[in-house]
Amino acid sequence: MEQPINILERYWNFTEFRPEQESIINAIIEGEDTFVLLPTGGGKSLCFQIPALAKEGICVVISPLIALMKDQVQQLNDKGIKAMALTSGITYSQLDTLLDNCIYGNYKFLYLSPERLQQELVQERIRQMNVNLIAVDEAHCISQWGSDFRPAYKNIALLRQLHPTVNVVALTASAKPDVVEDIIKELDFIQPKIFKQSFSRPNLGYMVYHENDKYYRIETILKKYKESSIIYVRNRKLTLDLSAFLQSKNISATYYHGGLPNAEKDKNMTLWLQNQKQVMVATNAFGMGIDKPDVKTVIHLNLPESIESYFQEAGRVGRNGEKAFAVILKNNSDEALVKNQFLNVLPTVDFVKQVYRKLCSYFQVSYGEGEYETFDFDFNSFCKTYNFSPILSYNALLLLDRNSVITLSKQFKNKVSAQFIISSASLFNYLETHSNFNLIVKSILRMYGGIFDHDTKIDLAKIAEKASSNENSVTKILLQLESDQIITLNLAKTDAQVTFIEPREDDKTINRIASIIEQQNKLKQQQVKAMLEYVENDSVCKSVQLLTYFGEKDTKPCGMCSVCTSAKKTVKPQEVSSIKNRIIELLETGDQSSRAMIAALNCTDAELKNILKLLLEHDIITITPTNTYKLSHL
Known about the structure:
The protein has about 625 residues and is an alpha/beta fold. Helix content is about 45%, strand content about 15%.
């Protein structure tokens, strides 16, 4: 068997393992059931990839995240390692062929979702494979008390029946003690090797600042720390607004959100990765698989939904071991905003039942039917048809997806088909009086040979490219051709696909998962409460608060978070007197804003506020109508 360190050097060009990696890899190679809790950036994927490469056979990897599966498969393929992922949108015959390739084609990794594992064909073929390891990624999804619980994860133990002698490794970046116990029990581990790396990040300062003007504080932070930065914001519009604001302040910035075309995502990502842009302003769609070591600051403009997601996003900072900062900016409106965004949009069991019934009606799925039928789905049209709130409906659909009632795959596409219903001679007569249609119609004829004989799928983007036009012009001409009875046209715009996993049973279907929906809603409420408590608690070290949340004991104050640094800065009476005199000197030259004073004085915001309050109480200074300060006697 090849040594793990040799595999690491050959494929990853590293000459040593990160802390814990080698011990984990050796335990897995020795056939032990293994539980791995490594914080974000700890190198979890190598922990199962290297043992799988060291042994004969194929590793079956269960993961809930399609994007992460595709990313890891691409990375392995780029290294010349044969890997595949069974994602949605694969036909039965394609699935049959792909599974055969896994058995006979020397593949080393098969990635699939827990829902895919429920198919009999998949189970039967996995039974025939020479499986050398079963890896369960994002293992917290198996626990009802873990964030993103997916009931299908409870079926993973089935793999143990298919291959009773093969060991299992469970991996996660965030799990509280009760979730860890749940994972070990659900995966039927007996005397597992447990590897838990402390969540402590000694080089990382967790800062929470109360700010009325968050953009100004961001500007000052980024001008002080000019290295690479990520700013997380609540929605897509804010990514554009904030990056434009930063550019206007001569801070180079780009943006990233889930709705961008892939080419633009890649371009913006590359600019940031190569340090051509200092700041990436992004929604939480950004960050998966990113391992940029020199990120100096991660700033949250809005409160995250949970400590788990915050810790994961904050963990993308300071991976080179140098001092770095994770900053949350809060103000008085944030509590209401976070409750509106994450709690007031939790669908009740009754609402989920309603959405499910209407979804079946929308696609005309009869009672007792629909199993494994797939439909193109225009989400906005669905919401308008039934007068549903889009955000509540989307969350209800996600619940149905997570609980294996449906599969919802987000993929925007224009599905267009057409057929010419007149003879070619009549068509050319028509074009003589519609010469402006010539180029586009002839481009279609050259690209789609059978379009006179049958309804043919056509690609608007490719037609536009061939005709040196644009998609809007092509669509207008197609609609005119349809109106003039030259073609039949099917112009369907969809932003997703829905696959029904089980036959329609209306309320019975939802009643089976009602307790899970209620329990997950309760968990969300607990997570938001914990997040609010974290940002409001200014008496306990921020690092200690986070470590305690994840079940670590005997923690010590970090000395560098916002709580620890403010405790250190007790201002001596002579320093207070010096700052007071300096403020008076500044005001003698004219009215001053608090920002201008901070820029001129060597003190913190809190110190300035306290001294200004003192001066106001003694009537030495007053506030002007424009919210600046001036000396009372002037």
